[in-house]
């Protein structure tokens, strides 16, 4: 687990809400407080969509929805003359990306042993903090996956030009 203080809140918010920067992450859950607090569960319900909609944007096999599906709704909740009091977003890495990370880093762990690799984003007032997290379905003292995930997130932030400390 690693904590990151985002250095440029304004730029980060643009990347989070107005661009495709985080669109490949799955949304586990989110909450935002404006005039009221709104909670979003990222569980995907394909029965809501028509067959043609499912063909053009099939659901993730994980059972969670992609951030790109929720981002417009979340953005709508942030609009107005006042900024949100706070929000919290929990992203999770898609299973195919977890598999790719395991292979790239040579980690001898089966994908089914991993419950999730998470990126927790917390906005409060004028600052944004991100915290990485791993969840395993089996007990392990091996921290190689945790270190690889932290390294991948740091690389992601650098590639997307998101300054952090």
Short description:
The chain is built from five helices and seven strands; from the N terminus they run E-H-E-E-H-E-H-E-H-E-E-H. It has 165 residues and is an alpha+beta fold.
General description of the model:
By secondary structure, the protein is an alpha+beta fold. The chain has one domain. It is 33% helix and 28% strand. The protein is built from five helices and seven strands; from the N terminus they run E-H-E-E-H-E-H-E-H-E-E-H. The chain has helices at 9-18, 51-56, 67-78, 95-105, 144-159; strands at 3-5, 26-33, 37-41, 65-66, 86-92, 114-124, 127-136. Strands 1, 2, 3, 4, 5, 6 and 7 form a seven-stranded antiparallel β-sheet that branches. The radius of gyration is 16 Å and the shape is globular. The two termini are 14 Å apart. The relative contact order is 0.22. The model has no long low-confidence stretch (mean pLDDT 92).
What is the element layout, followed by pairings?
Layout: E1 3-5, H1 9-18, E2 26-33, E3 37-41, H2 51-56, E4 65-66, H3 67-78, E5 86-92, H4 95-105, E6 114-124, E7 127-136, H5 144-159
Antiparallel strand pairs: 1-7, 2-3, 2-4, 2-5, 5-6, 6-7
Descriptive labels:
single chain; 165 residues; alpha+beta; seven-stranded antiparallel β-sheet; 33% helix
């Amino acid at each position: 687990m690693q904590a990151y203080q985002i250095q440029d809140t304004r730029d980060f918010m643009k990347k989070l809400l107005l661009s495709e920067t985080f669109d490949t992450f799955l949304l586990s859950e989110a909450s935002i407080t404006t005039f009221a607090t709104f909670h979003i569960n990222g569980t995907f319900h394909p029965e809501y969509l028509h067959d043609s909609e499912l063909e053009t944007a099939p659901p993730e096999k994980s059972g969670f929805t992609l951030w790109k599906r929720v981002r417009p709704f979340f953005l709508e909740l942030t609009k107005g003359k006042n900024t949100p009091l706070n929000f919290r977003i929990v992203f999770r890495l898609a299973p195919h990306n977890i598999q790719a990370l395991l292979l790239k880093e040579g980690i001898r762990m089966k994908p089914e042993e991993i419950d999730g690799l998470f990126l927790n984003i917390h906005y409060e007032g004028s600052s944004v903090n991100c915290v990485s997290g791993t969840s395993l379905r089996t007990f392990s003292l091996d921290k190689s996956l945790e270190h690889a995930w932290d390294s991948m997130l740091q690389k992601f932030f650098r590639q997307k030009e998101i300054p952090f400390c």
